[in-house]
Amino acid sequence: MKRQKYSLRRFIRQDSGAIAVMFALMLPVIAGFVGLGVEVGLWYKERRSIQTAVDAAALSAIFELNGGGTSAEITAAATADAVRNGFDATTDTITINTPPLSGPYMGDFAYVEVLINRQLTMFLSQILLDTAPTASARAVSGQLGGDDEACVLALASSAQDAIKMNGAGSTVSMEGCGVVSNSTNATKSVNIQNGTFEVDCIAASGGINENGTITTSCASSQENQPTIDDPYAALAVPAYAGCDEDPPGNQAYTPANGDTLSEGVYCGGISISSGDTVFMNAGTYIIDEGDFKINGGGTLSGTDVTIILTASDGSGTGTISITGGGTVNLAAATSTDSSGAIQGDYTGMLFYQDRNAGSSPSLNATFAGNTSVELGGAIYLPNNDISFTGGNSTASDGCLLLIAQTISFNGDADIENDCDAYGGNPILYGGSPGLVE
Fold first, then answer.
1. Where are the domains of the chain?
2. Quick one: which of 66, 75, 149 has its CA closest to 109?
3. Is 116 helix (H, G, I), strand (E, B) or coil?
4. Angle of helix 71-84 relative to helix 18-66, nearest 10 degrees?
5. More confident site: 396 or 287
6. Rounded distance, CA 391 to CA 16, Å?
7. Where are the alpha helices (DSSP H) in 349-428?
8. What single string gives the DSSP state of each residue in 172-187?
9. Digit-coded pLDDT (tens) for 317-351
10. What is the pLDDT averaged over residues 136-153?
11. Percentage of the chain lying above the pLDDT 70 cut
12. Which element (helix H / strand E) includes 198?
């Protein structure tokens, strides 16, 4: 009896097979971890594979977009290139967003976002994981920045004649710069109807009509190009209070012949009368609810000048009107002042019409009537139009930038683009499609 009890106790205490039992219990877990390690390496390889596919799809999509392709055509082109580079419809899904729905280019129709998701295959890792993981890849394509400079930019998105030349016997000469239209109008984003147009290059997001005499230094005009960004999109009207000049009845301030104007706030506008000669001191001139006018035969000159047209109560912003044989010689602030200090946000800006002014024919700027004009800097009307008519001699002091919804020439104009001294924001175009994210 004692011997049996002793044998039972030894049996209970026996542990020589414990390791084998534990190993048998742990074997599935060990296999799961080993399998997971191996499969993670395979998953990373598949992740790289779909990144190649998504990059190819994004590049194909931007070329199709720049060529005027529809949403369906963009999707078809992107998907085809994804398939050629490893996309498998049985395991993968592809999404093409124009414009992108995330990232720094979100909402910008000049860019395309492509995403591919792939359901990954599990082998031994399914011991540890209930659901197969998904690999994702994303790419965004757009226009990589160009280094060609333009001196004329039409911001209108779809207008016919966004840039127009219609002056029989007239010549528009632009030395060292091109003209760019963001309008996608299929036939006349740029319309050179007649006259002579001399320019480095013409680029448009739509079509170009070339009936006039055109001389360019590029191989050919560039149609169906991507839009380019407004270089002054972030520019705002500076804070100001009160009027330095506020004639009774809110009429325009009319300086006398021989007067010198000083910077400040002019409520009601500034109007130079016919035959009067006026000088503007350096500085920023804010015109609150009024026009800037130079009437027939008036003469105005000034350097380091910025003229801002705005309205303190949100309505009544004025425009620019130079007519009737006047003589104007104005230049914006250069990149440094006389002491060598760097200028502020308005470096290189000659005329700025508040972007909150809205759009109206009454707010279009006019340079007309055999006026002799020498302007240096940028003329910026983000919501309205600029028109040069009637035999203008618009020779800038080395630099003139015209940025508006539309720009038309119906007379002579001589525009140059030596803008280094003005600093500011150049109008750059001529980039090539590529991946930006």
1. 18-143, 148-435
2. 66
3. strand
4. 140
5. 287
6. 109
7. none
8. EEEET-EEEE----TT
9. 999 998 877 788 888 887 665 555 556 778 889 99
10. 82
11. 77
12. strand 190-198
Could you tell me whether strands 433-435 and 134-143 are parallel, antiparallel, or unpaired per DSSP bridges? Answer: antiparallel
Distances (CA, A) of 53 to 71, 83, 397, 436: 19, 7, 51, 16
- Give, rounded to a whole angstrom, the gap between the first and last alpha carbons of the chain: 84
Q: Which residues contact 78 (CB under 8 A, 6 or more apart)?
A: 57, 58, 60, 61, 64, 94, 96, 112, 114
Q: Please give the residue that has the higher pLDDT: either 430 or 19.
A: 430
Q: What are phi and psi of 69, to 5 degrees?
A: -65, 150
What is the arithmetic mean of pLDDT over 62-91?
A: 87
Contact 431, 229 (CB under 8 A): no
The domain 18-143 having CATH identifier 3.30.1300: the answer here is yes
How many CB atoms within 10 Å of residue 101?
12
Nearest to 144 by CA among 263, 228, 218: 228
Q: Can you tell me the mean pLDDT for 105-123?
A: 82
List pLDDT tens digits, range 364-400. Answer: 998 876 667 788 888 999 999 999 876 555 655 567 8
Based on DSSP, count helices (H) and strands (E) in the chain, helices before strands: 3, 28
Q: How far apart are CA 433 and CA 437, in angstroms?
A: 12
Q: Identify the pLDDT of residue 257.
A: 93
Torsion of CA 332, 368, 308, 264, to 10 degrees: 80
AA identity, residue 327? T
Say what the alpha-carbon torsion angle 284, 286, 292, 298 is, to the nearest 10 degrees.
-40
Number of other CB atoms surrounding residue 257 within 10 Å: 12
Can you read off the two tokens belonging to residue 265?
Answer: 């706030």
Cβ contact 419:396 at 8 Å:
no
